[in-house]
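Work Package 4 report. The design task specified in the project plan requires that, given a folded chain encoded as structure tokens, an amino acid be chosen for each position. We show below one input record used in the internal validation round.
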């Protein structure tokens, strides 16, 4: 890696951390970046194993990560949630006053880059810079709200509404304006999308076909383009408060 490339990556990481943790000053962001490590994972890589030592805190900088647990029979896995750009993993093990063990596993669903902070360094930084906790509390509060929303949604809502909500979130995180629509710049396998919705691949494909026929989106060689965001939001039937949370998280 050349010096210019290293400087470019450092500047990009600082800008990213400032966006994720806006309560921190520029000087604090610089100090935080200095104790960070950029880690890269290919599609399918296990980032953290459930029950193993929790080394620290991860923030997704690019890509998409699934979080899950093993079922009681041991070999079956159950996906619980997904981390998009700017979302974190490892805070529980970092702040609970007990042996630091991963309570869930983390897996890269697509090629992903994460910013990593070793546990003791992250805790020491927080003690010296308490403004960090304003951002962490905001993020955790949002996670609680979204968890409650997802529990209700999974029990009573239709697949079409859930698909609309997922596309809204993906469009906000990975959308790029193009040809009067919003193209998802991160190409997510259809099987992965089905897992995110908790439905079969066939059910997902039928849902995407309905949305195409309604003019809500178009697809081309695996790429999805949202054509009518307002109609998609209307189909999701969600108020502005929850919409703002959904747009920030998966």
């Amino acid at each position: 890696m050349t010096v210019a490339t290293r400087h470019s990556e450092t500047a990009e990481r600082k800008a990213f951390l400032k966006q994720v943790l806006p309560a921190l000053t520029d000087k604090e962001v610089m100090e935080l970046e200095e104790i960070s490590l950029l880690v890269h994972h290919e599609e399918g890589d296990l980032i953290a194993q459930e029950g193993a030592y929790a080394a620290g805190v991860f923030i997704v900088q690019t890509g998409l990560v699934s979080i899950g647990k093993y079922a009681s029979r041991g070999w079956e896995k159950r996906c619980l949630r997904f981390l998009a750009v700017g979302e974190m993993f490892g805070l529980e093990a970092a702040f609970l006053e007990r042996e630091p063990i991963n309570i869930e596993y983390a897996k890269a669903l697509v090629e992903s880059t994460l910013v990593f902070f070793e546990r003791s360094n992250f805790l020491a930084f927080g003690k010296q810079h308490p403004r960090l906790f304003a951002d962490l509390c905001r993020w955790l509060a949002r996670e609680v709200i979204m968890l409650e929303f997802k529990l209700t949604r999974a029990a009573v809502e239709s697949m079409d509404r859930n698909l609309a909500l997922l596309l809204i979130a993906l469009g906000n995180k990975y959308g790029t304006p193009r040809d009067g629509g919003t193209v998802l710049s991160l190409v997510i396998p259809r099987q992965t999308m089905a897992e995110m919705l908790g439905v079969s691949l066939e059910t997902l494909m039928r849902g995407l076909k309905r949305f195409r026929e309604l003019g809500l989106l178009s697809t081309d060689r695996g790429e999805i383009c949202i054509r009518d965001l307002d109609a998609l939001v209307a189909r999701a039937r969600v108020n502005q408060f929850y919409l703002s949370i959904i747009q920030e998280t998966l």
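The mean pLDDT is 89. Validation will be extended to a larger panel in the next phase.
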